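Sequence in, structure out. First:
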Amino acid sequence: MNQWQEFQKTFTVQEDFAFGEDANYPFYIYLAKNGWIEFKEPILVRGSNTGPYKSSQFDDAFAETKALNAKIGQASDKALEAKQTAEEAQEKANGAKVTAEQATGEAQEARQLAIGAQSRADRATGISQIAQEKAEDAQTKSNQVAEQARKGPNNLLKPQGLKSHNLLARMQ
């Protein structure tokens, strides 16, 4: 029996009461076997005659309000999701900024190390050039001394700081 059954009952309210809370509830429903029951919106009328059910002008407004509240809830949920997505994006951007700042600091440190290494390399090159010049001078002097030695002991030049008799003594 999956259809609506109309039921009308007229009763007179003698005093104030709250539906579902008052012991003098104006009507009761008994179900035989397993049953399922649902109530449509009740109507209350004044007077002793009740006509057929007709929806109230407020029923449509209530349904529209209910639908609007559902849409507002969905919009609110989507706004919350968008806010969370924006916050996550902001956190990622902040993380990227920190990473970029760290990379910039490390790049500056690497640049300073490279400048120091270049400076040491330039000094080493300078020292190497001086050493090469001294080696060339020493080679030249060595060649001159060898040439003089070939010509004989009398042709040797006196080195500075040495006396001639010490040199002769060594050559003998």
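Second:
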Amino acid sequence: MKKILILSLLFISGWMSAQAVDLNKENRDPEYVKSIVSRSQKIVDKLGLTDAKTAEDVRNVIANRYFELNDIYEVRDAKVKKVKESGLTGEAKNEALKAAEDEKDAALYRSHFAFPANLSLFLDEKQIEADRKHINNTRKIKHDMKNHMYAINNMAKNNMSKDIITYTNDILGKIEGEKVYINTGNYLIDGILNVKFEEIKNQGIDFKYDVKIPEGIKLPEFEVITILGNLLDNAIEGVKSIKDNRYIEVFISYKDSNLLIKIVNTFDGLVIKDNKGFVSRKEEKAYHGIGLENVREQVEKSNGYMNIDTGNCMFTVDLFINL
């Protein structure tokens, strides 16, 4: 049933057809393309495909995914550079930088959702499941990708083609060897939770989740990314304020065309407010999400509801949005 729904969505939207998949290699360095194709082929070889044409199409889908990730970060970096050169200062600069990050994140999660859907044109459910780790693992280096891009850019300026190939091969090799932590069955939710879980795990925070989304439900990508991503950022920061009993719980469900989200985290009980609502205690805010008030605005835009409780050193956000 899932495969039929995904296929229908793809044919309606025109993302892909079941015809040959072209390699998106235009205006790219031939050596870089060769390296990515080789890496993608190694992934395909593990799937045991017997039809050569199907194997080639799947390889191109995977390679194009790598190209797309690179393009998304290049667009983000160009926007960040433009902001820094614009002369903007203070809150206006921070908001412009946030917008560049939010657009990047939205593009990444759209790509994360579309990738397995594209593969479903050529692979059965078992093969897609075998390939899911390659889908999610790519996201695990997202926080370091900016530095990787700067390094690669510097090597390119110095005509260090061989070093670039070695460097990208090392990055892609790390992607293949990582572990997928969370598999709820919903690609969008999985992408967000896996990315955030990496940070939660590194902070030594206990994490529990309960996600129940019916098959085939199309979630509003930008709203869910904004709301869930920033609430998890807030929860992580809250738990950092304490040394014991550190945990985060996430509950997501669907009822009567509403998406229900509840996030609970322990914290030190200190709450700071101004006339706009809760105030972050972070010193640097430019790259830390849009804040609880803007999350509330996203909820209200969908005619939803949001409640925050801070009693007993438990920070609880309970909300729903209309789909």
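Remark: The radius of gyration is 21 Å.
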